[in-house]
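lol forgot to send this yesterday, sorry. struct tokens for the thing we talked abt
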């Protein structure tokens, strides 16, 4: 079990480094592309490469958001309920995320396989590399949601309000 925890920790660290690098690369590419267009020497490949990086950024960033519980929530309404109801609502919410992510993983794999022959406009790579972010990101989000459910189940109700304050 320790091996799996260490592997997961390494994957999450790698994921955070990659998303930071992708964000920097997207910013630089878009900026350079705008300057190059202005001086009449467009970088046509920069747009396709930015789209590829942005797609991965969105789905890997989604997993980071799930893992850090930085999701959109209706806390004004949820905070009106007693801790037990809030806990059950959180478990239901993360269960719904897992179900949705599993569906997206299955359909994302199909989409990636269907796009193997489709190419980017300028880049000499398959569009599958772009659509592959859907099943990979959703699979990671499902794992993170499962871990969140496990943490919720093992958090006693007496610590519920303190746990929510720490997460914020």
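and heres what i got for the seq, position by position
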């Amino acid at each position: 079990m320790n091996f799996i925890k260490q592997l997961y920790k390494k994957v999450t660290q790698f994921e955070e480094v990659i998303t930071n690098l992708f964000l920097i690369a997207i910013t630089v590419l878009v900026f350079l592309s705008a300057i190059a267009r202005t001086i009449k020497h467009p970088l046509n490949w920069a747009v396709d490469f930015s789209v590829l990086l942005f797609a991965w950024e969105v789905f890997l960033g989604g997993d980071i958001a799930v893992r850090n519980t930085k999701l959109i929530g209706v806390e004004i309404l949820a905070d009106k309920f007693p801790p037990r109801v809030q806990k059950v609502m959180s478990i239901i919410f993360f269960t719904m995320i897992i179900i949705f992510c599993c569906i997206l993983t299955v359909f994302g794999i199909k989409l990636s396989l269907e796009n193997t022959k489709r190419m980017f406009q300028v880049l000499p790579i398959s569009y599958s590399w772009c659509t592959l972010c859907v099943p990979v990101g959703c699979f990671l989000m499902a794992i993170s949601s499962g871990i969140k459910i496990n943490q919720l189940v093992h958090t006693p109700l007496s610590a519920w309000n303190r746990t929510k304050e720490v997460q914020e």
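The radius of gyration is 20 Å. anyway ping me if u want another try
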